[in-house]
Amino acid sequence: MNPRTRTKAGLLRAGAAAAMAVFSIAVQAQPASTSVAPAASQTAAGSLSLRQVFDAVWARQPEAMALQARRDAARAQQSAATAWTPEPAALELSNKTDRLNRNQGARELEVGVAVPLWLPGERGRSAALAEAEGAAIESRATAAQLRIAATVREAWWQWQRARIEVNSARDQLDNTRRIAADVARRTKAGDLARADQHQADGAVASAEANMAQAEAAVAAARQHLRALAGTAPAPSEVAGALAEPDPSAAAADLEAHAALQELKDRAAVAERTVALAAAQSRANPELMLATTRDRGAFGEAAQQTITLGVRIPFGGGPRHDARTANARAEATEIQAQLALERERVIAEREAAKVRVDASRAQLAAAERRAQLARESRGFFDKSFRLGETDLPTRLRIEAEAAEAERQAARTRIELAAAISAWRQALGLLPQ
User: Fold this and answer.
1) Other C-beta atoms lying within 10 Å of the C-beta of residue 190
2) How far apart (Å, rounded) are the C-alpha atoms in residues 101 and 133?
3) pTM, whole model, 2 decimals?
4) Taking the CB of residue 178, how many other CB atoms lie within 10 A of it?
5) CA 62: distance to chain centroid?
6) Which of 74, 123, 243, 330 is the most exposed place for a label (fewest CB within 10 A)?
7) For the chain, which ranges sit under pLDDT 50?
């Protein structure tokens, strides 16, 4: 083999080896990339905000699924109200003959069209009713969203309270374990009695029981969110800004509240139904146009005539009175319900505002208490290590500090929940 051939073969072998190395690296790296992608997607899917949970819950509601169909129906009703006739025209056909009895050749063929006519004022009132029904569909959907928002907010803040309990129980468990480890070390050294060791271990067992109870509560709260939205936050998710924006009282108009707007639109529909029922005192008249071709017997020439007529029904009588009375009763009932709902919304707004102010005051007191408890914990922890404080006192101070921390964290959540309830009372959706 000449040198050029040997060089070429060596290059081929080196290229093949490099290719195999690259292939093996790619194969080894492939499982790692596929395992990271699902984790990232799960993290993205698990990071849910209150607004995202609300959107997911609303998308699953029957009202949301039927909303587009209702809008289509309202548009069709508006188109029908602007049509030339209240009902479609009708084609009339008739044929008379004496073939079955005398059979003398008598024939009569009639072809006509019957066109319904609007009653006086009926067309305009029908258009007004269709417009009111279209607005009522939108306000009904908004009111349904607000009712769903109340359920979502309650479940969301219940989950946040359960998370706070878990975090507090975990911190308390870590601190009691640290104290128990210190007690065990000093018991072995002969500084403390075995009774102290048992007391410290008992505190650890109590903290473990509290931790298990808190984890069960947070799991139940997560499952409630899952049942509502079809998904739930990750168990280890750490939420960022929990509180919704503080609403401005000047920006929330009372009459713009979704519950009141729904009733006002329903009242408008009822009132326009009364007006339409008053106009529809009888069935619609009909304009008839027909042509007739007939002959009297065999051999006679066929004659053709044109018929133009009007069909005017009599008044509706008791049926019309009953329909009108029912429409008026519905309008009266909705107006009374609107007045009661307005009073309820005003009272709920005032109560929610008071609750927010009280929660702010409670939070300031709870944070001050937690700060003092942390400082006392530090003092007694140092004195316990120096042997100047007994174990029962140290455990009592630890329990008081843990309770103060838990109360402060719980009060923060209660303030955020109070602001959320205030927004709910103002008719604002989650953000």
Assistant:
1) 7
2) 57
3) 0.76
4) 13
5) 11
6) 243
7) 1-46, 240-241, 250
Residue given tokens 């009266």 in the structure block: 332
What is each CA distance from 133 to 69, 81, 126, 130, 272, in whole angstroms?
Answer: 14, 12, 10, 5, 10
Integer Cα distance of 199 and 196 in angstroms: 5
Token pair recorded at residue 336: 């009374």
Torsion of CA 54, 60, 64, 68, to 10 degrees: 130
- Which residue type does 42 have? Q
Q: List the structure tokens of 393.
A: 């006192």
How far apart, in Å, are the Cα atoms of 410 and each of 272, 378, 421? 51, 22, 16
CA angle 409, 410, 412 (to 5 degrees): 65
With a CB cutoff of 8 Å and minimum separation 6, the contacts of 243 are 415, 416, 419, 420
Question: What is the predicted pLDDT for the residue at 236?
Answer: 58
SS3 category, 357: helix
Q: Which of 115, 154, 131 is nearest to 79 (CA)?
A: 131
pLDDT (0 to 100) of residue 229? 87
The C-alpha atoms of residue 197 and residue 186 are separated, in whole angstroms, by 9
φ/ψ of 290, rounded to 5, equals -140, 155
